[in-house]
# Entry
Amino acid sequence: MRFAWEEQTVRWFLDASAYTGFHKTLAQKIIPYLEPGGTLCDAGCGLGRLSLELAPYVSELVAVDLSENAVAALRRDAKERGLDNLSINVRDADTLTETFDALLMSFFGQSNITGFLKLCRQRLIRVVSADNKSGLYPARYRCYVKDTVPIIQEELAAQGISYKLELHSIEFGQPLRTWQDAEMYILQNAPEASADEVSSFLKENIVHTEQDDFPLYLPNQKELGIFIIDRGQ
# Structure
């Protein structure tokens, strides 16, 4: 499943990243595995929040994504930060043939790890959810399949590939401006949900923050795994 980066989904995602500091926190978990002066590819970068955080720690970072909207947002923010070592391209990550010291695949969906490992001179860094659950909308509407920690473990074990795995829990909920905004957010993720289901879910889960900019918040503790796969393994 390719994520649709539209105006509203871009806004919600950027709000959530800034409000929770999720990508800043996740980047700190990844930085120890980057080589100073090395090159890094962020494959399927989306809005590139990790690219922005990691670029200062490498000599060159190449970020690629299929979505023109996502790439445009990343180019804008990279320019604002003055990151001149960040190359951003509209491109299918599956077409990559160049090699990099490290390659990052963060919440990439489903993938062939061995194919991307061939593009790494040193290591592949694969970030996936611990499971296929979410606290951001009614669970029964989470109908797509993605790589998770158990799936990656099984794949690597089947191929005899050694790895290091870090498990983390990082808050990545959704701040919202109005109740209508909250309803639209739920329906974006669960379009088949009835009005009663949306209302019931929000009443059970929404937090009133008393903040002017984001008076409502949907908590979501993101359980994830970071696989570190060295090229020689």
About this structure: The CA atoms of residues 32 and 57 lie 10 Å apart. The chain has a mean pLDDT of 92.
